[in-house]
Design a protein that fits this description.
The chain is α+β, with helices and mostly antiparallel strands. The chain has 13 helices and 16 strands. Helix 1 packs across helix 4.
Length: 446
C-alpha cells in the first residue's frame, strides 16, 4: 500500500489496522545512545486512546506498546550500562489490539454493506474491492494514529535534547474558542495535564509503575503478560484512581477532560459538545500545535517548504484543513498587518509579531512555530443518514450502532503534537548536515 511512509532522513513506516492483530511503526534515523522505554511511549499513547473520558469512544483498547527492535538487548560489554539504549538500527514499535472481540466485529459486519457517510467506507471499497479491510475501518480508522503518536514521541524526545519543545492543545471545540495564552504558560499547562493523565491511568500505574512489564523482559515474556492483560482489561480499568473534576482542578490546576489552557473555555467546550451529543450528533474543533526553540532556517525551498511539510498533517484522519500562523485570516489583512516587522535588540533579531507562524519562504524564522488543524465532527453518529448498499447500489438508511466518539478533537491533539515532531526532526537533521557541510567548505576556502 502506497502512502504509509513519511520522512527523508528520519523515516517512519506504519502498518496494521483497527481489527487486525495490531499496528506497527518502524522508525529509521534514530541516533544511538538514547535510553528508551515502553513506559514513556505509552505515556503519550494513553493521551489519544479511546475510553479515557466522557467525550471519547467507549472502546477499551489500552494501546500498550512493545519495542521489538532498535534497542540493545544487553550491555555491549560488561558494565557498559547501555542496555535498552538505542543502537542506530531501525526501531520497531508494536501496538497489539487487545480489545478485539467478535461482538464488535459482528456489529461492523452487519453494517459494512452500507458505508458510513463522511467516512472512507465507500471510496476504500471501490479502490480495494470486497477484500477491503473494513472491519473497524482498517487503516482508515483513527486507530492507526497510535503509530504516529508512538513514532512521534521518539522524535519529540530527540528534539527536546536539542532544545526544541513541542506541545499541543485544543483551541476550539463545538464552537467554543479559547482565549490566547502565553506560550510558556500553555506549555506548563499541557505538561501538568499529561501528568494528571499519567497519574490517573490505571494501565500506566498497574503495568509500568508497578513493573508488571519491564524493559528487561524479552518479547515473548511481554507477549505473555499482554495476553493476560487482555482478559483483565475491565478489572484494571476498575482500579483507576477516583478523583472528582474539582479535585483534579485543585491538585493539577487543569481541566479534568479537555486539554485547553483556558479552563473557563474548557468547561464551556464540554457543555457545548455534550449538548450536541445528546441529540445523537457529533462535533469538531481546532487543535493548535506550537514548537519553541526551533533554529532559523529549517525547511527547503519549493516543494519541501517547512509549512508544506507540516501541511502533510492533512494525513491525520478527520483533519480537513491545516493553517500556519494567521492562516486563512490573512485574506482580511493588509500588508502592514500581515508583515512581521523586525528589529535588532541586544545583538539578536526580534520580531514585532508572528502572523507568519514562525515560517517565511518555507524556512523557520526562529520564532515559535504555530500550526492549527481543523478537525471535522466524528462521522459515526446516532442519527439516520442516507447511504447505499455498496454491493447492489440500492438506496438505504443508516443509523450508527457501533461505538463512537462524541468528538475526536480530544484525541487528535497528541497526534498533531507528535506528527509535528516527526516533521521538525526530519528537517533538523537535514539542517544540521547542511550547516556542518557549509562550515567545512567555508573553512577550507579560507
Amino acid at each position: 500500500m502506497i502512502g504509509c511512509h513519511l520522512g527523508r532522513i528520519f523515516q517512519v513506516s506504519v502498518a496494521g489496522g483497527s481489527y487486525q492483530d495490531g499496528l506497527t511503526a518502524v522508525v529509521q534515523g534514530v541516533p544511538p545512545g538514547m535510553l528508551l522505554t515502553e513506559q514513556e511511549i505509552y505515556g503519550d499513547l494513553l493521551l489519544r486512546k479511546p475510553g479515557a473520558d466522557e467525550l471519547s469512544s467507549p472502546r477499551k483498547e489500552p494501546d500498550l506498546p512493545v519495542i521489538y527492535t532498535g534497542l540493545n538487548a544487553a550491555d555491549t560489554i560488561e558494565g557498559a550500562g547501555n542496555r535498552n539504549h538505542t543502537n542506530g538500527t531501525p526501531l520497531t514499535i508494536l501496538i497489539p489490539n487487545l480489545d478485539r472481540h467478535f461482538i464488535h466485529i459482528k456489529q461492523y459486519q452487519d453494517t459494512n454493506r452500507t458505508p458510513r457517510p463522511g467516512h472512507a467506507s465507500y471510496a476504500s471499497f471501490v479502490k480495494y474491492g470486497p477484500d477491503d479491510d473494513s472491519i473497524g475501518a482498517g487503516i482508515f480508522s483513527g486507530r492507526y494514529t497510535s503509530t504516529i503518536v508512538a513514532a512521534g514521541y521518539v522524535a519529540k524526545k530527540i528534539l527536546a535534547l536539542c532544545g526544541i519543545r513541542v506541545y499541543s492543545f485544543i483551541k476550539e471545540l463545538a464552537g467554543v474558542r479559547s482565549d490566547d495564552v502565553a506560550h510558556e504558560k500553555a506549555l506548563d499547562y499541557t505538561n501538568r495535564y499529561k501528568q494528571m493523565r499519567h497519574d490517573l491511568d490505571p494501565f500506566y500505574q498497574r503495568v509500568y509503575v508497578q513493573n508488571r512489564i519491564t524493559p528487561e523482559m524479552r518479547f515473548l515474556e511481554k507477549a505473555r503478560i499482554l495476553a493476560e492483560i487482555e482478559g483483565e482489561i475491565d478489572d484494571i480499568r476498575a482500579m483507576a484512581p477516583r478523583m472528582t473534576h474539582d479535585e483534579i482542578g485543585k491538585r493539577y490546576g487543569v481541566h479534568a477532560v479537555v486539554n485547553c489552557p483556558d479552563v473557563k473555555a474548557a468547561d464551556a467546550m464540554v457543555d457545548a459538545a455534550n449538548a450536541v451529543t445528546r441529540t445523537g450528533d457529533s462535533t469538531g474543533g481546532i487543535v493548535e500545535v506550537v514548537a519553541l526553540g526551533a533554529p532559523t532556517g529549517l525547511g527547503e525551498p519549493v516543494f519541501s517548504k517547512l509549512d508544506a511539510e507540516l501541511g502533510r498533517m492533512m494525513g491525520i484522519g478527520a483533519v480537513k484543513a491545516v493553517e500556519v500562523g494567521a492562516g486563512f485570516a490573512v485574506k482580511d489583512m493588509t500588508g502592514i498587518q500581515s508583515n512581521d516587522a523586525m528589529h535588532a535588540e541586544g545583538g539578536k533579531v526580534v520580531f514585532d509579531s508572528n502572523q507568519a507562524g514562525g515560517i517565511t519562504g518555507g524556512l523557520s524564522t526562529g520564532q515559535p512555530i504555530i500550526v492549527r488543524l481543523a478537525v471535522k465532527p466524528t462521522p459515526t453518529i446516532d442519527k439516520p443518514q442516507h447511504t447505499i448498499d455498496k454491493y447492489t447500489l440500492e438506496n438505504k438508511q443508516l443509523a450508527a450502532i457501533t461505538r463512537r466518539d462524541a468528538t475526536i478533537v480530544g484525541r487528535i491533539w497528541p497526534v498533531a503534537e507528535n506528527f509535528t515532531a516527526l516533521v521538525l526532526l526530519d528537517n533538523l537533521i537535514a539542517h544540521y548536515g547542511y550547516q556542518t557541510l557549509r562550515a567545512q567548505v567555508e573553512k577550507a576556502v579560507k
